[in-house]
Design goal:
By secondary structure, this protein is an alpha/beta fold. It folds into 2 domains: about 1-45; about 65-265 and about 340-370, 3-Layer(aba) Sandwich (Rossmann fold), CATH 3.40.50. The protein has 15 helices and 7 strands. The protein has helices at about 1-40, 45-65, 65-70, 115-120, 135-145, 165-175, 180-185, 210-225, 230-235, 240-245, 250-255, 280-285, 295-315, 320-325, 355-365; strands spanning about 75-80, 95-100, 125-130, 155-160, 190-200, 265-270, 330-335. A 7-stranded mixed beta sheet has the order 1-3-2-4-5-6-7, with helices on both faces. Strand 2 (about 95-100), helix 4 (about 115-120) and strand 3 form a beta-alpha-beta unit. Helix 2 crosses helix 3 (about 65-70). The protein is globular.
Length: about 375
């Protein structure tokens, strides 16, 4: 009898543990369901959410004006200071390249490209901006900052943009309210000769919904480097950029309806994280072409389309190949993820990211590379 009761109690404990585990799994499942439901449900109220986020950001700026002004002072154009043994080129006689980052970028994206450009004789500047605010606001800030080049005697520049930085640049060049064409003609802002976009989601990215994770990374790195502040997470934007980045957003619809900027040589570099590059797929299909019957050749064509579509859909892990394309704009593909195609993980690595090589080659072919 004692043994039977002990067995019953033992079973009860096991059932209790199983019940707790089941309840935890259900709670976790519901939590994830609510998170995903929240993100996708807001598709019906994108502009309303954007407006609410803007109101929150503006309220914080009014409540903490000193901190807001201090934060705003950290953004803008800053000349890259090379740690190479050679001196920086004279800004009045060497071509100028402006680098502009993307969403939630803590400052490491140019660690390979900037010194490589400086070593080639380029005068390198980096543009920083509150990367979570509306893209149109970032474009206006960029445009205003370019006006400072007039005092330096710089009348032509090239822009290299990573990710959302390409959208900021396109907005700056094409927004009729900013009058870029007119002001470049009068010399109030420099003429943009080249715009090279790297991993830019020209037609949006579904993963922008989950930018909270990259925002956390951004703020964590800032905090560890002594640049963090408890208000920084909202003073650098309240997430309005995330809404602008979603496919078919009002911002992207408006931007992509405009003609491309006249006189700007544009190009796109996209990354493919898949081990199957387009050339590899073609080579593979051709290698088995003679091994199958004529009746199966059509199947090979379908296989090629399927493999390319999988590679395209994966893209660089953040931006698909198709969403990076723009009609009439040269498009090149390199192997790498959204970050690895432009920078290394470790500063000690001697690897040359593939996009770095392409960018330097393209800029050397530009008329701006010639001395004035």
């Amino acid at each position: 009898m004692v043994k039977e009761r002990a067995g019953i109690l033992g079973n009860g404990k096991r059932e209790t543990k199983t019940g707790k585990r089941r309840r935890w799994l259900i709670a976790i499942g519901i939590s994830f369901g609510l998170i995903f439901g929240w993100h996708f449900g807001l598709d019906f109220f994108r502009e309303e959410e954007k407006g609410l986020r803007r109101q929150i950001r503006e309220a914080v700026e009014r409540k903490f004006p000193d901190q807001a002004a201090k934060e705003a002072g950290t953004y803008g154009l800053h000349q890259f200071r090379s740690n190479l043994a050679i001196p920086l080129p004279n800004k009045q006689f060497y071509p100028t390249v402006v680098l502009i980052h993307g969403l939630d970028e803590p400052g490491k994206v140019w660690m390979n490209l900037a010194p490589a450009l400086a070593a080639e004789g380029f005068n390198v500047w980096e543009m920083s901006y509150p990367n979570d605010q509306p893209i149109a606001m970032s474009a206006r800030l960029f445009f205003d900052e370019l006006g400072g080049f007039k005092e330096l005697g710089t009348n032509r520049i090239s822009i290299v943009a990573h990710s959302m930085g390409g959208l900021v640049s396109r907005e700056m060049l094409t927004n009729p309210d900013l009058l870029y064409i007119e002001k470049a003609g009068t010399g109030e802002v420099p003429e943009v000769v080249d715009l090279i976009m790297v991993g830019t989601p020209n037609h949006g990215s579904e993963l922008a919904r989950f930018s909270v994770f990259t925002e956390f990374r951004d703020q964590w790195i800032n905090a560890t480097e002594g640049k963090g502040h408890w208000l920084k997470w909202i003073l650098d934007g309240a997430g309005e950029a995330k809404i602008d980045l979603l496919p078919d957003s009002k911002f992207l619809t408006r931007l992509n309806s405009r003609p491309q900027p006249v006189g700007v040589k544009m190009s796109v570099i996209a990354g493919v994280a898949s081990p199957w590059h387009e050339d590899d797929i073609n080579e593979f299909v051709e290698s088995i072409h003679d091994e199958v019957s004529e009746n199966e050749h059509q199947m090979l064509g379908e296989l090629k389309k399927f493999l390319k579509s999988v590679s395209d859909s994966l893209g660089d892990g953040i931006v698909t190949v198709s969403t990076s394309r723009l009609d009439g704009v040269p498009h090149r593909i390199v192997r790498g993820t959204h970050l690895s195609m432009i920078r290394n993980v470790s500063e000690k690595s001697e690897r040359i990211p593939p996009a770095v090589t392409l960018i330097i080659e393209q800029l050397k072919q530009s008329p701006i590379h010639q001395r004035n």
